[in-house]
Amino acid sequence: MAEHDSSQYYVPAQSPWPIVGAVALFMIAVGAGNLVAHLSRTGEPGWGRYVLIAGIVTILAMMFGWFRDQIKESRAGLHNEQLGVSYRQGMSWFIFSEVMFFAAFFGALFYARMISVPWLGGAGNNEMTNVVLWPQFEAIWPLVTTPDGTQTQAMGYMGLPLINTIILLLSSITIHFAHVGLEQNKRKQLFWMLFVTVLLGCVFLFLQVEEYIHAYQDLGLKLDSGVYGNTFYLLTGFHGMHVTLGTLFLIVMLFRIRAGHFTVDNHFAFQSSVWYWHFVDVVWLCLFVFVYVL
Amino acid sequence: MTTVTTANESATPQEHEHHGPEKGIKRWLYTTNHKDIGSLYLWFAFIMFLTGGAMAMVIRAELFQPGLQIVEPHFFNQMTTVHGLIMVFGAVMPAFTGLANWMIPMMIGAPDMALPRMNNLSFWILPFAFAILLASLFVEGGGPAFGWTFYAPLSTTYSGDSTALFVFSVHIMGISSIMGAINVIVTIWNMRAPGMTWMKMPLFVWTWFITAFLLIAVMPVLAGAVTMVLTDKFFGTSFFDAAGGGDPVMFQHIFWFFGHPEVYIMILPAFGIISTIVPTFSRKKLFGYASMVYATASIALLSFVVWAHHMFTTGMPVYAELFFMYCTMLISVPTGVKVFNWVATMWKGAISYEVPMMFSVAFIILFTFGGFSGLMLAITPVDFQYHDTYFVVAHFHYVLVTGAIFSLIAATYYWLPKWTGVMYDIGLAKAHFWCSLISVNVLFFPMHFVGLAGMPRRIPDYSVQFADWNQIISLGGFAFGLSQFIFLALLIKACRKQGEPVDAKVWDGAEGLEWEVESPAPYHTFTKPPKID
Ligand code: HEM
Ligand SMILES: [Cu+2]
């Protein structure tokens, strides 16, 4: 791979990292598969946890190595404009796939609220369902009493959830200004705005944990508290995982900015971290409306 | 498609050595070359096809006679489940991805796929996913036995510990498909040679573009479905349990929201292949190129609003039944447009029946037949009779085996000389065609009869009245299975370059950039964008 010339195509060279990643995913799947099954059968984690941890470590190493190579090549000027466009399009489609992943859980939430719970309560032509199966069951949302009688309390939107919403909205603004800073080559603004964004992300995560503790201890709202608790924890949980990943992503960006990476017209990684962060934010807004408020 | 001429700017010999493949196993493990990765996908798919086929042989052996003969019912269920999963996710989808890898860059004048390293990753995680799935057959309590559709509560309340392995292996398959699809869509969007405008793209490229969109849209939903199965089974959630306010029918909605687009994922690239082969051997331009593109797009869009035709008997409200019935019937209109266009392309053409064309014509007739049985199933009131019988099995095997698989075989016979540089053994190919054609119909046609007469699917035993036809079906099945070894022999011969060397343009009526580069196609096809007018 010699010097590049934009009338030529550029094809990245071979790399050992993908196969390392494949092995890592294999370990994660086998480890998690064993762990989950063992846990539910015996209440104790089996050997699976070691395989799982090894897999996670391997995949982190893979990402580190892969991206390091990638950054080296990019900074050596090997990549051309076409590759940059490919990366951006690839990232956009990846985010679209994430949107669809959340759509599945939102779909489950809507189905439970609009269809399965009302039907269990006898709506439509389902009166016999109610009478025969659970005559004492009343269809209300949030579902604080399930048909088989599991009790819980609903999580309101005031307090922590509202504060978290404000925090995430703020962070979307700060990251936007970081981006503007990069585009106008104001490196200080870039760094500090991004720094604030990372802080806000961490605070969000901290408060989210607080909220879970509150839910478990004070409200008795648990993962297995019926379909209200299920959708609550899976939606907020997967969102929280995405915030965690996004924050890590931003922290890496901070270090790279410190190291002098990214220029006005070459900052794909930074840009995708911004997109990702906005995506996480939008998901939260939907969550706030449909899980907490309505 | 308009004619394409190109100043063939393949690499000079020196450059060639510089960029040539690495030696040994590293070439395959580390590769970023779309042709290497395409070959890996295709061979992997073929191995999975034989593996899944072996399971089908177990099923047909058990069903050869009424009564329990050979395997335990629980094992029988594992065979139907894993057969379906392997054929869908291990054979058909990777085979199409393999073709996309090999052909799309060549067809649009690109040097490679847009994201070559991710391309390697998306292939190499697949063998691991299937290793896990197959290994789960050997864990205590057996492998997945709830059908490829893993309906709750079969997959939650009544499944074994191996469900966790099943869930994670499906996750990996999904990651692989999504990465593969992102690569395809970005390649097509961003890597077309200058002058290759959207409406000049070969139809195989178009259909894959739309397929990739479908994949990115629905594979994550499948991931969501398996995740909910996992938490329902192991973490006490009740998404699919009415006692906790959920609903087992909700599983079916989520699954089929993925599942119906999925069946189009398995057939749209096939449409592209047939639309490529039929004009070549009819020596005419494809009839109605633009209408083909629009038909493909409308099939893809409609495929998001027909999912509940798999659930007519679940007790949905009548307006929902009607909505899904009409939408399903609507989707057969663009499908009909396609069949019409293929036939119109052949009309008054100077047709010759080379092997790819033989498979394509068989495709057109037999796929259409599957479409007709689909229409019958789409009629809600009659589906109450047909649902979960062998009639459904007949329907989807006509569209998938004589549809998707036949198109894959046709594509292989069409492009194999381009890949290997030699003409394959045509005698063997014809034998493969006739053996497959006859046996596949002996295998699947009588399933319509036993299905209409009420024989349920996925049951290891049956009432004696179905015995005669089942014996015939099983014989057809064994014959079809054996016929594929002819294909295997042919492929091995061709890959060892036993045969007449071929020119760049293997078929005189063929059009497209892939026929401008020499055969076998050089390791790197275009180092500079080719010129297209
Ligand atoms: C004219 C177009 C089509 C129509 C109207 C149609 C309609 C249907 C209907 C109504 C069912 C549900 C039957 C039941 O379970 O009672 C069904 C099942 C099925 N169809 Fe189609 N179909 C069409 C084309 C296709 C194509 C192109 C494919 C795949 C390449 C396909 C694959 C399947 C599969 C795999 C199933 C069964 C899934 C299962 O339950 O395991 N169909 N089809
Ligand atoms: Cu369908």
From TrEMBL, chain A:
<feature type="transmembrane region" description="Helical">
    <location>
        <begin position="17"/>
        <end position="37"/>
    </location>
</feature>
<dbReference type="Pfam" id="PF00510">
    <property type="entry name" value="COX3"/>
</dbReference>
<keyword id="KW-0812">Transmembrane</keyword>
<feature type="transmembrane region" description="Helical">
    <location>
        <begin position="49"/>
        <end position="67"/>
    </location>
</feature>
<dbReference type="InterPro" id="IPR013833">
    <property type="entry name" value="Cyt_c_oxidase_su3_a-hlx"/>
</dbReference>
<feature type="transmembrane region" description="Helical">
    <location>
        <begin position="157"/>
        <end position="178"/>
    </location>
</feature>
<dbReference type="InterPro" id="IPR000298">
    <property type="entry name" value="Cyt_c_oxidase-like_su3"/>
</dbReference>
<feature type="transmembrane region" description="Helical">
    <location>
        <begin position="232"/>
        <end position="255"/>
    </location>
</feature>
<keyword id="KW-1278">Translocase</keyword>
<feature type="transmembrane region" description="Helical">
    <location>
        <begin position="93"/>
        <end position="112"/>
    </location>
</feature>
<feature type="transmembrane region" description="Helical">
    <location>
        <begin position="190"/>
        <end position="209"/>
    </location>
</feature>
<comment type="similarity">
    <text>Belongs to the cytochrome c oxidase subunit 3 family.</text>
</comment>
<feature type="transmembrane region" description="Helical">
    <location>
        <begin position="275"/>
        <end position="293"/>
    </location>
</feature>
<feature type="domain" description="Heme-copper oxidase subunit III family profile">
    <location>
        <begin position="5"/>
        <end position="294"/>
    </location>
</feature>
<dbReference type="InterPro" id="IPR024791">
    <property type="entry name" value="Cyt_c/ubiquinol_Oxase_su3"/>
</dbReference>
<protein>
    <recommendedName>
        <fullName>cytochrome-c oxidase</fullName>
        <ecNumber>7.1.1.9</ecNumber>
    </recommendedName>
</protein>
<dbReference type="InterPro" id="IPR033945">
    <property type="entry name" value="Cyt_c_oxase_su3_dom"/>
</dbReference>
<keyword id="KW-1133">Transmembrane helix</keyword>
<dbReference type="InterPro" id="IPR035973">
    <property type="entry name" value="Cyt_c_oxidase_su3-like_sf"/>
</dbReference>
<keyword id="KW-0472">Membrane</keyword>
UniProtKB/TrEMBL annotation, chain B:
<feature type="transmembrane region" description="Helical">
    <location>
        <begin position="123"/>
        <end position="146"/>
    </location>
</feature>
<feature type="transmembrane region" description="Helical">
    <location>
        <begin position="428"/>
        <end position="449"/>
    </location>
</feature>
<dbReference type="InterPro" id="IPR033944">
    <property type="entry name" value="Cyt_c_oxase_su1_dom"/>
</dbReference>
<feature type="transmembrane region" description="Helical">
    <location>
        <begin position="203"/>
        <end position="230"/>
    </location>
</feature>
<keyword id="KW-0812">Transmembrane</keyword>
<dbReference type="Pfam" id="PF00115">
    <property type="entry name" value="COX1"/>
</dbReference>
<feature type="transmembrane region" description="Helical">
    <location>
        <begin position="166"/>
        <end position="191"/>
    </location>
</feature>
<feature type="transmembrane region" description="Helical">
    <location>
        <begin position="469"/>
        <end position="492"/>
    </location>
</feature>
<keyword id="KW-0813">Transport</keyword>
<feature type="transmembrane region" description="Helical">
    <location>
        <begin position="81"/>
        <end position="102"/>
    </location>
</feature>
<keyword id="KW-0679">Respiratory chain</keyword>
<keyword id="KW-0479">Metal-binding</keyword>
<keyword id="KW-0472">Membrane</keyword>
<feature type="transmembrane region" description="Helical">
    <location>
        <begin position="355"/>
        <end position="379"/>
    </location>
</feature>
<dbReference type="InterPro" id="IPR023616">
    <property type="entry name" value="Cyt_c_oxase-like_su1_dom"/>
</dbReference>
<comment type="function">
    <text>Cytochrome c oxidase is the component of the respiratory chain that catalyzes the reduction of oxygen to water. Subunits 1-3 form the functional core of the enzyme complex. CO I is the catalytic subunit of the enzyme. Electrons originating in cytochrome c are transferred via the copper A center of subunit 2 and heme A of subunit 1 to the bimetallic center formed by heme A3 and copper B.</text>
</comment>
<feature type="transmembrane region" description="Helical">
    <location>
        <begin position="250"/>
        <end position="274"/>
    </location>
</feature>
<dbReference type="InterPro" id="IPR023615">
    <property type="entry name" value="Cyt_c_Oxase_su1_BS"/>
</dbReference>
<feature type="transmembrane region" description="Helical">
    <location>
        <begin position="286"/>
        <end position="310"/>
    </location>
</feature>
<feature type="domain" description="Cytochrome oxidase subunit I profile">
    <location>
        <begin position="28"/>
        <end position="533"/>
    </location>
</feature>
<dbReference type="InterPro" id="IPR014241">
    <property type="entry name" value="Cyt_c_oxidase_su1_bac"/>
</dbReference>
<comment type="pathway">
    <text>Energy metabolism; oxidative phosphorylation.</text>
</comment>
